[in-house]
Every structure is written in C-alpha cells, then in structure tokens.
Amino acid sequence: MDEQITNDPFAAIRVPEYRNLLMGRFAFIMSLRMMNALLIWWVYELTRDPFTIGLIGLSEVIPALSMALYSGHVIDISEKRRLLLRSVFFYICAAGLLLFLSTSFVGGHMRPAYIVYCVYAVIFCTGIIRSFSGPVFSAIIATIVPRHALQNATTWSQGTWLTASVTGHATGGFLIGLVGVRNTFIAVCIILSVALIVLSRLKPKPANTVRGEKKTLESMKEGLRFVFKTKALLGAMSLDMFGVLFGGVGAMVPVFAKDILKIGPLGFGWLNAAGDIGAILIVVVLTIAPMKKAQGRKLLLAVGGFGLCIIAFALSKWFFLSFLALMVGGMLDGISVVVRGTVMQLTTPDHMRGRVSSVSQMFVNSSNELGQFESGLAAKLMGVVPSVVFGGSMTLIVMITTWFKAPTLRKFEY
C-alpha cells in the first residue's frame, strides 16, 4: 500500500473538482461553526445555566445517531451531489428559523425559556440533516480523487475542515461582540448560501450500488460489520470517541470566558478557536511531512497529551495559558483526526463508503455532542472546573487502558 501513496503534498489539490469541494466545504463548515459558537453563547446568555448548553449537544446527537446507519445506506444508493445540495439547503432553512427566534419580535412575545425550547427543536432537525451531510462529504472524496492521492486528499480535507472551523469559531465570537446575535445569524445564512452555490458546481455522483440490490436493514448491518471486523479502523474510531467524549471542553468555553477568565465575547471567540488553530498547524506539518511509521503509537500518545492539556486548561486562571493549553490540545487532537480519516479512506471499499462514513459519524457525534452533554451534566453536578479536570483525567485513563489492552492499535502502521 505504501508504494501506491503519493508523496506529492499537492496531489489532490491538482484535481479541479476537488478544489471546488474544498471551497464549498470551507464555507459550509465555517457557517456551522459560527452557528455553534453563537448558539452556546446565546443559550447561556438566556439561561446562565451550563446544563442548558449540554442539552444543545443532546438535542443534536439523538437524531444524528438514530439516523446514522440509515443515512449511510441512503448515501450509497443515491446520487451524492443532489443529496449534498439538499442537506446544505435544509441547513439554510434551519439557520433562517434561528434568525427568526433571535428577533426582537420573538423576544418581546416569548419568555427566554420558551425561546430555548424552540432552539432545541431546530437543533434536533439539524441533527437529522447532519446525519446525511457529514458522511456524504466524506463519501464524495473518493469519487473525485484517485486512490493513490487519498491520503493526501484526507489531510487536505481535514485541514480545510479545521481552517473553516477556526475561522467560524473566531468569526462567530467577534461578530457577537460587534453586531449582536441577530446580525450574526444573518451572516451565517449568507455564508451557507455561498456554500450551496459553490457545491452546485460539482458533477453528479452516481450511486455505487443498484437500488434495491439489498434490503435496507441488511445493507445497514453490512456497514457495521465491516467496521467491527476492521480492527485498526474500529480502534482508531473508539479511541477518538472516548478521548473527546470525556475531554471535550467546547461546551464550557463560554462559561470560562464569562465567569472565570472574564474576557467577554471577543476573548470567547479566540478561546473557541484555539483548538482549531492548533489542529491547523499540525495538519500543515502532516501535509508536508506525512507520518511514515508508528502511527498507532503516535495516536495513543497524542490522546494522552490531549487529556493533560484539558486539565491544564481547567486549572488555568490566565487567558494566555488557557489559550495555549487549548491550542496544544488541538494539535494533538489533529493527529488523531488525520490518522482516523486516513485509515477510513484507505480501508473502505468504494461501494461502502457512505455506510462506513456514517458509522464513523456515529462515533464522532457520540464524542462531540454526547461529550457536550456530559460536560454540561458534570458541570451541574461537580462545578465547572472540577468537571473539566475529571474529563481530562478520564481521557488519560482511556489512553493508558488502550495502550495495554489493545496492542494491535499500538503497533498499527499504514
């Protein structure tokens, strides 16, 4: 396999259609990250209760997980470009509803608690949309880029995702402070519309399987079976899931910004972007100099270091140290993301990419959104700082346990 992988750091970028995909994905992810930053700030501002932030993650993860296997089946039997464009369009509709909820008209006629309930309902709908949009982006990559450039394409894709994420998080925080919640939602709608226009330039992507060839339930089971029998893929997904499930602190960043570090929305924007800035740095390094060996060992060490960074963030009382801890944590998390993404692209047959991507999204959704809920619940039970220390410590325990109990992953190379 090693001989087939190109060493050209720009191999995937030389494909014009792949550039369109990256530009459209950049605008799409940037807008979603702006929306996420805006929602956790807005909901906390309305309620002043960290637990309500955790419920944002729970509202999205329930439909996303419930629909994940089915969406993978649908992706594999559908024309992927049309499915992608529909997903982006529905996100625009959801952003429009949130914009309406943020208006003075709604604020004057509804209590804050009822506005928050409506926000949860919209987020529930975006969870359904996300179960299709995330995997279809991943499945389309292999239909555009030749196999020998898939590792390079995966790294560029992750770099684009992370760059868009840091841009969206930071821009969301800045705009909240400069123009307020309602106008920031307007910006989100505009950027989502740009993503829709750019992605419409992609060529149609026919289904990889014949409609009706397999029953839906059997098709869904096939995707699960493939992941569970591919030990390297299952190990990378599981480690990433548990590491971020306990170690994710994104939901608590507005609480630290408002009540502990007292840095306001602009500082919140920088803290929210710190992890993604670190991840971008490491992705640039890995694009120029890919990991040649011992990827499994490096993955485990990165997860352990991520846990230590989370503990340092929880205990910090200074903005610079908090920012640095999150940035280094983002660098280490970026290693995990690149390894997991590369293993998935290299081991998955073309006809199963939708289903395997959906299973991967189940792990990702579990770690991110359930982690957000876990953070909110733990903060309510323990207090904000102890809950984040607990999360970082659990990430360390997961890494140490995996190191000794999963030697196959520790010794894995690609």
At the first level of CATH, what is the class?
Mainly Alpha
Strand-and-helix sequence, N→C?
HHHHHHHHHHHHHHH
- Approximate strand percentage: under 5%
Tally the structural domains. Answer: 1
Mean pLDDT: 83
Please count the beta strands (DSSP E, at least 2 residues each): 0
CATH level-two architecture = Up-down Bundle
User: Could you name the CATH topology?
Assistant: Growth Hormone, Chain: A
Give me the Rg, rounded: 20 Å
Helical residue percent band: over 70%
The separation of the N and C termini measures: 8 Å
Structural class: mainly alpha
> What is the overall shape?
globular
Major pleated sheet: none
* Total helical elements: 15
Unreliable stretches covering 5 or more consecutive residues? none
CATH superfamily: MFS general substrate transporter like domains
